[in-house]
Amino acid sequence: MQTVNRLPSRRTLLGAVSRRDAEWDGLFIVAVRTTGIACRPSCPSRPARPENLEFFATLDAASAAGFRPCLRCKPDQQAAEPEWWPRLVGVVDSAGSARLSDNQIAAQGFDSVRVRRHCRREYGMTFHAWVRARRLAAAQHRLRDGAPLDRVIIDSAWESHSGFREAFSRLVGAPPGRARGGEPVIAATWNSPLGTMVAAAVDEGVVLLEFGDIARMERQAPTLRRWFHGPVLAGSHPHLVQLFGELEEYFDAKRRDFTTPLVLRGSPFQLAVWHALRAIPYGTTCSYADVARAVNNPKAVRAVGSANGKNRLPIVVPCHRVVNTGGKLGGYGGGLWRKVRLLEVEGVKV
Ligand SMILES: [Zn+2]
To answer: Distance from the CA of 190 to the center of ligand 1, in angstroms?
Structure first.
């Protein structure tokens, strides 16, 4: 993965550090010459003077240069899913009640403080809210598959029928009896070599992929809720597992085409543009004018640019392969440096 180890500009890096921008965590390491300490970009410690900062693509590189990991922001510890989390999910799914008290969790050997912290950081909600959302999502799936409402309510082990209906309506936006046509949108994050990505899927396919964490997806959540008549919930979905696996191969330059099912929603013109983008071969670029010609609308160059910018499935729908005429790179929603690196992964000389 050598090709993607180059860092963005020093100005970009300094900006991320001064904002303590957690979106950059895992993307680079900032090291302080005067103290010999290496930190995550979001480290809460008081920032050193910019002239004393050095940047590295990885902690290994910083360590090789003699820096040691900060004890406060712990860049040596993966922010990945803790090993106890899948077991806890199993306990939640098999529990016979809608609520799990801290004592019940502790009795099973889990540290409730860590559980709470994990849910806050990963899902932006309390553990209890997460448990309820997971139950309601399961209930909505069963309703859609034709299970009788009374049966679903009983199995959900909610405190009362009215409590279930109320919680369901609040989360899904429609009472259980009218939500049969909808389904929950499942979101998950993946640590790409270019930073955290968040993706969302329904059973038909992947509906969203973007750079950022789950909290960032909040902006898209109302649109997703409207389209699919279901809540947006953190979880795992086979389409997301497939997508992240394919992306991993893509970044290792071992995959050129994506086979994960996609759900594209947009105006007829946007759909035409996105389909044209998918036809641009791996490792090549074309201009906005080329895409306009491909959709039989050669004058609509600006509209193509706008549809390009509204692409909700970057990389998979390769909007990064469209560049300005004259060799300039043009813009990129995920940041120009990411566009450069994606093209580098594909072997395009930039
Ligand atoms: Zn630190």
So the answer is: 23
